[in-house]
Each structure stands twice: as structure tokens, then as C-alpha cells.
Amino acid sequence: MKQLGRHILAEFTGCDTEVLNNIEQIKTTLLEAARQSGATIVDSVFHQYNPYGLSGVVVIAESHISIHTWPEYGYAAVDFFTCGDQVDPWKACRYMKKKLACPEMHTQEISRGIPGGPDEIIPHKPLDKPSFNRKPA
Amino acid sequence: MKQLGRHILAEFTGCDTEVLNNIEQIKTTLLEAARQSGATIVDSVFHQYNPYGLSGVVVIAESHISIHTWPEYGYAAVDFFTCGDQVDPWKACRYMKKKLACPEMHTQEISRGIPGGPDEIIPHKPLDKPSFNRKPA
Predict the structure, then answer these.
(1) What percent of chain A lies above the pLDDT cut of 70?
(2) pTM of the model
(3) Which of A14, A33, B17, B76 would be a feasible disulfide site paired with B69, CB 3.0-4.6 Å?
(4) Band of the pLDDT at A81, cuts 50, 70, 90?
(5) How confident is the model at residue B134 (pLDDT cuts 50, 70, 90)?
(6) Which of B18, B31, B72 is the best substitution to test chain A (most A C-beta atoms within 10 A)?
């Protein structure tokens, strides 16, 4: 694979249910997690569900960090998808685990990029000007 | 695992580079993909990068659909994370493949939920009132 990014899928269980249902706290925490990883925050969106649970996504210049919570299960599904070598998604992951008072997390890291060929890391943001050939309209 | 959701991670290669760099087209397409899957759209955010590439996330009541494009590689990383049995993430995935003029996609479907125990599907949205015990503040 020509790897562009690293994607951690984390299952956080046994979390503090109050935190999982507090949109302001989750918003602050997810944004800080992005900063902890070294990412550049581009935009974010958060939504509280009725009767409980919430979703949040922080778009970063290096992809995204997202959370979906089920306070009724003490569970959150959290994704840390980052590209480039300037960002460490594990820093964000460890920060979130701590802030959600999560005693146990299960994670898997998946490489994102162009499948096939020998494994190599390709640049996230080429420094030279656009040179790709556009298809005819 | 007590499964709450299904998460398809898709690598789209050989895509139409113009489409991958057209934020209005990607926005329209990603929102329609969400509808095609049967999801309820909650919010969305899209961002165009300089000199090229874009990110987009559609938050749905059933989790999220996201895209990050690298027109210079003809590549897009697309996620379809849905919960509940009313939504089919594969419908969104097939729709996106077609709209990005993607000749080849590589996908993996990962179950999201609470690890451990026998495999079962647990309700995405319990119908009864909140009954979870909050931890003491």
C-alpha cells in the first residue's frame, strides 16, 4: 500500500456516563485531543441526541477525529484518522481515554491509502504545484 | 462483541480528479449518499484545501459518513459508519463509487461496539426512558 494516513478505531467502554452526555465537555475534550496530537483544526460539528448520546467531529487538515457516544452503555466509538508525520493520533487517543475516565479501550490501527504494490509512505501534501492530469470534462 | 454499528472503510482509487477537487459536487454527492443509505442527516461540514484536496463529513443520526480526497493521487478515503438496522452503509458506498467514477475500490467492514462476550446486536436507540446509572459527580 502507498500509505497516506493512519486510522485508529477505538472502542471506549466503562466510561463516565455523565461525560458521555455532556456536549460542552465532549466538545472541549475532542478539540483539545486534536491539539494534543499536533493537528491543525479546520472545523467542527457537535450534536446532542434525544434522550441521550451525542456525535462530534473535528475536521483537521490531516483528516478527522470523531466521537459517537451511548451513555446508556457507557460506550463511545472514537476515530482518530490522521495523515502525515507531523501528527500522532495515539496522543489524541490516550488523551480521550483519560478524559472519558475510560478504564479499558480496544483499538485497531488501520493504514489508509492506495492499495497494492510495495508498502511505502507517500507525501500527504506534495510541496510542488499541482501537476496531476485532469480528465477531460 | 455487543455490536452497535457497522463501519466500512473504503479506499477509492483511480477516481475522476476533477470531481475529487470540486467541493460543491462532493457535498451534493456525500449528502445524497447518506440519503441513499436511509440515514437521517443531522449536520455537515466541508472544507477545500490549498492547492487541492478536500474534506467532508456528514453527521447522521446513525453516526457519520466522511471523505478526504487527494486529487493528485486520484484517491479518496471514505468512511461509512452507520448504526441500527434501518440504514445500509453499502448503498452509500456503491453510490459514492459510481459518482466518483471509481473503477476500483477496496473496502473493509468493521463491527463497532462493546468488545467481549458472545456476538450479539444491541439496540442503537433503546425505546424506553433513560435508566442508566450516572456515576456520582
Answers:
(1) 91
(2) 0.91
(3) B76
(4) very high
(5) very low
(6) B72
Given A15, A37, A83, A93, which residue is catalytic? A83
For residues A78-87, average pLDDT: 95
DSSP-derived 3-state class of residue A68: strand
Whether the predicted pLDDT of B133 surpasses 60: no
pLDDT for B126: 53
Residue A127 has pLDDT above 70, yes or no: no
A83's grid cell: 495523515
DSSP state of B131: -
Which residues are within 8 A (CB) of B44 and not within 5 positions of it... i.e. 6 or more apart?
A45, B27, B30, B31, B56, B57, B58, B59
User: Rounded to an integer, what distance in angstroms lies between the CA atom of residue B131 and that of residue B18?
Assistant: 50
Spell out which residues of chain A touch residue B81, defining contact as CB-CB under 8 Å.
66, 68, 77, 79
Do residues B111 and B9 touch, judged by C-beta distance below 8 A? no
Closest partner residue to A115 (CB to CB) among B53, B59, B106 is B106
B18: nearest CB among A71, A110, A134: A134
User: Do A17 and B133 lie within an 8 Å CB cutoff?
Assistant: yes
> Is A33 in a helix, a strand, or coil?
helix
Our answer to whether residue A68 is catalytic in this structure is yes
pLDDT surpasses 70 at B46: yes
User: Catalytic site residues of B?
Assistant: 63, 68, 83
Hey, is B53 helix, strand or coil? coil
Q: Which of A63, A64, A93, A102 is catalytic?
A: A63
If you count DSSP H runs as helices and E runs as strands, how many of each does chain B have, helices first?
3, 7
